[in-house]
Amino acid sequence: MDFFGHQDAARRKTIVLIAYFIGAVILIIAVIYAAAILIFSYLQTQSIGEPGAPAALWNPEVFGWVVVISLAVIVGGSLFKMAGLRGGGRVVAESLGATLVNPGTRDPDERRLLNVVEEMSIASGTAVPPVYLLRDEAGINAFAAGYSPNDAVVAVTRGTLRTLSRDELQGVMAHEFSHILNGDMRLNIRLMGVLHGILLIGLLGRGVFRSARFSGRSRSGSRGGGAPIILLALALLIIGYIGVFFGNLIKAAVSRQREFLADAAAVQFTRNPSGIAGALRKIGGLGAGSGLQASRAEQASHLFFADGLAAPFMRLLATHPPLDERIRRIDPSWDGDYPPVQIEMTPSSEQGKDETAAFAGASGIRPAKSVPGAVSSFRLAPEEAVARAGTPMAVHMAYARDLVSELPPVVNQAAREPFGARAVAYALLLSRDKDVRQRQVARLTAHADPGVLKELQRIYKPVAGLTPQARLPVVDISLPALRALSDRQYEAFRENLDHLTMVDRELSPFELALRHMFRRHLDPQFFGAERVAAQYYALHRLASECALLLSALARVGHASPAEVAEAFLAGMAYLEIKQKPSLVPATETGLAAVDRVLDKLVQVSPRLKRQLIAACTASIARDGQVTVEEAEILRAVADSLEVPMPPFVVGESAHLGPGSGGAEGHGRDVFKR
């Protein structure tokens, strides 16, 4: 799967969507104009009291008013809806009646769902998204919504939890994560906003029609006075349904093929075709199927895992391919049978209970273990880094599940509630140097919440004992709990984090990675950061920014000036910049400067992000070895560019294997304050 190619394809689909939308608007305006001419002709006849010559087919004044009013309604309605959707996936989920699942839940089914989502996130290199549950929906369905992985949410119905096995649930979630990774979500949520303007004409016609009927009944002594208004309302109502038709046609054209791609990606991700195929078969065997009862389900029908509405009378308008076709593409040997499925409305599966018990732990204390598949250092070619971006595989899934299961239960549990999640972050940043750590603890004693300090004392040793590969995944797991903080709590938490990393005036690769994770995934929620869109389609306009980033990365793991220069040039060779800039001095590549250029470089097109990932990899890996810390900073930079990078695991490449022990200390503290 080509992540950057899919991102480009999603962007092109947006252009196609706009073209469809313009075509639908032109047709709607033409129909409204024809209706206006008929009404105008009718009014002329009524005014002279006898039939006359019909109105001219072309009336520039009427046409002008039709265009202005129609565009005002359609464009205004679309802009209004898109403004309402600025909150991203959370707004969509809540509009459908979904409620947030508590990250620390002990409900067996909910715990199983959260575990699956966490494993998917770690395996794919994305932040763990908030998980929602449509508690009143008995059908089997799910969706992912948002503009980017930063504001994505995933949601499932109660029927999904009660009927699917873990493997089947994993298949459904892998399908939804493919939408997150491929840029489908952004297109889907834009589709909701754009089409609302077309549908608004029908809603307006319905309102005018009802008002005209009421007005006609209330008037006395007038004949036919309300007829023109009723005719106008009927025309708007009919035109509105034309808008509905074209809206559904556009959704079908944009959505259907992507469902096949997401199914295929889910099989690649899990290497378990029976999981997603089993979920689809259960939809066919369940009385409720995949239908949703939510009043706004029609608006979001193209988001769902399967058809959320009754099958349309024309398959042309269906947003999803037929179930049997999807199943046969995954399992060609399927016999066509849908075994009857009964939904269990009471908790819960034994498998879910086992996962909850493992989450709680017996004593709550267990030393961290080395996870199978973890690597200490490895070789990585720039082309390999580009190919693996946004392309998780089954080996990553197995690694993520092993990693989560081997976390000390006390850490696993603490990371899923607000007090413990803050304590985990603080514990990860406490220095091994006694003097530095004392200053850090003094800061926390003066400024941190007493409850957080108590948690910190309880979990410090287990967190300090985590393997290097487990540290960032624990931060990932803590993100949903940290999203539950109040604005004041988050501001204090952020200030404490900044202070903990500033005590020794240097920033390690891990500290930089952790800082960027919180900044990218939490700041938008609490500070309302502007959403990023592609604004640059050539790198020559950003040559100085590219030079600064590569200069900073060239100093990661390279000591001598000659090695740094070689690493810088190795990275610049992958960028399409005619006049190559020079290496930026170390005094100008501090943390603030790196932050600033990443904020700008995230605005480049997917094709240019491909070049940037290759260039960053070439700079970091110039000496032939990438350590765990260097891999962390590479993944942090990729995350800042909104490029999800799966963890580096033995077995995914011939180059990934146990490295030399001497490479462990390779990632030095290079980002001076």
Number of strands: 8
Distance between the termini: 40 Å
Largest sheet at a glance? 4 strands, mixed
Q: Using the alpha-carbon principal axes, give the shape.
A: globular
Average pLDDT figure: 84
The structural class is mainly alpha
Please report which band the strand proportion falls in: under 5%, 5-15%, 15-25%, 25-35%, 35-45% or over 45%: under 5%
Unreliable segments of 5+ consecutive residues: 361-368, 658-673
Structural Rg? 28 Å
User: Largest sheet, order of strands side by side?
Assistant: 1-2-4-3
The percentage helix is 55-70%
Individual helix count:
25
What are the salient characteristics of this protein?
disordered C terminus, single chain, two-stranded antiparallel ribbon, about 675 residues, 25 helices, mainly alpha
Description:
Helices cover 60% and strands 3% of the residues. It is mainly α. Among the domains are: 3-87 and 188-270, no CATH class; 388-505, no CATH class; 531-672. The strands form three sheets. Strands 1-2-4-3 form a four-stranded mixed sheet. A two-stranded antiparallel ribbon has the order 5-7. Strand 3 and strand 4 form a beta hairpin. Helix 1 runs parallel beside helix 7, helix 15 crosses helix 17 and helix 20 packs parallel to helix 25 (628-640).
